[in-house]
Amino acid sequence: MKKIGVKKIGFLSFGHWSDEPASQARSAQDTLLQSIELAVAAEELGADGAYFRVHHYARQLASPFPLLAAVGARTQRIEIGTAVIDMRYENPLYMAEDAGAADLISQGRLQLGISRGSPEQVIEGWRYFGYTPAEEESDADMARRHAEVFLNVIEGHGFARPNPRPMFPNPPGLLRIEPHSPGLRERIWWGAASNDTARWAAQLGMHLQSSTLKTDENGKPFHVQQAEQIRAYREAWAAAGHEREPRVSVSRSIFPLMDDRDRMYFGRGGKEADQIGFIEETRSIFGRGYTAEPDRLIEELREDEAIAEADTLLLTVPNQLGVDYNAHVIEAVLSHVAPALGWR
């Protein structure tokens, strides 16, 4: 088994908000502004990435590009990304403009995770956005079609016939989407739930994002199945002949119990084992969380085969507990867990 030691470590926020008394994110504005502040804090702590999940029709982060651009303007070094954008809802050309602008603002730090997406709050919610699968096409097929168009246009090649009498002078030849950000095409990731979609992503030259949810393909423990998926992805990447190195991220809920506050929030555990469920009639396996004192946490994480295979680890954070607490969790992992495991 190929093991990758030193890792990029970032956070992943779903950006929940609610008006519950215990929530420090009571509104969409709270969540957006706190997301920016957490990215700034994570960069100061030495973390490598600030990633955000996208869900529509929910009290969660939805439109990612204003947030990504704002984070890019407030930070200098940290990678900025999504995990993931649901491509069933996206106009690929307009998305290419937004992504190009956000990447230029961050000076080339965008790591954009895209995917078919997960079940949403609304039945076939993408129809309200104006998108309908073609005849004999599933919504997953539509998402992959949107993704392929997006990948093509961010290459920067001209494809649109110019107006012979434009308002402003055009460069010669066919026109491309502007603003164009060179190098963005090499920083697109695909969130894959199955081994087949991981192989498809490799063929198209996308990096792999594998979260704590996967299609249950053989009944093995989650981390073992995920490690198998990563190896299948890397084999497909090598077979495709790409010259650059692929990247792989996994996400985990990891909470070192450092003080009474940690023990109050997470000391009772409850998610220390894999779970099986069904998503749209597909049997899926949900990975466990990790909560313990650092010494015990280190031993448990040492046995996680998928983390060992990945070069990037995203820590899922409970954003409603506020910026200060989540910065504390990130610092605890970076300082008290990562070095002992060789991640730092």
UniProtKB/TrEMBL annotation:
It comes from Paracoccus denitrificans (strain Pd 1222). Residues 20-255 form the Luciferase-like domain. It comes from the Bacteria. This is Luciferase family protein. GO terms for molecular function: oxidoreductase activity, acting on paired donors, with incorporation or reduction of molecular oxygen. InterPro entries: Bact_Lucif_Oxidored (IPR050766), Luciferase-like_dom (IPR011251), Luciferase-like_sf (IPR036661). GO terms for cellular component: cytosol. PANTHER family: BLL6902 PROTEIN, LUCIFERASE-LIKE MONOOXYGENASE.
